[in-house]
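anyone seen this seq b4? input:
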Amino acid sequence: MNETIVTLRDVTADTVVAVCDLETNEDQKHFVAPNAFSIAQAHFSPIARFQAVFSGETPVGFLMWRPQDDGSVCYLWRFMIDRHHQGRGYGRAALTLLFASARSDGFKRMLTSYVVGDAGPHKFYVKLGFRDTGESRPNGERLMDLAL
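predicted toks r here
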């Protein structure tokens, strides 16, 4: 069986529409902003970095992150895998690539946050090694931490 290679690629003029068309399942929509909103938001945050998740030549997801103030911590701001591509290991592969890249850039920890709910990403993040910090953000999202 051939495994499809997962890569992280910059969103370009040729791929932006396909990336913006990616969607989560209906019961997941309140857990993550639409990709078009995230891309627009990133353009007004000079430290935000975003990429599309590709399986072969097909865009299957999106992630966005930013360094924190001290330079040793980064924050996974947005992450999603399209509803048609979930459950195939693309999410784990994409974040594994992000973790390796962040580690090679000198980051020691990665933070993320999640909205509490049955179809939310909490269990997925725990399987990847994130741990709950016990803290919440002002918007109610719970914080998680991962040693890189």
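DSSP finds four helices and seven strands in the chain. The beta strands are 6-9, 49-55, 58-67, 73-81, 109-114, 131-136, 142-147. kinda curious what u guys think
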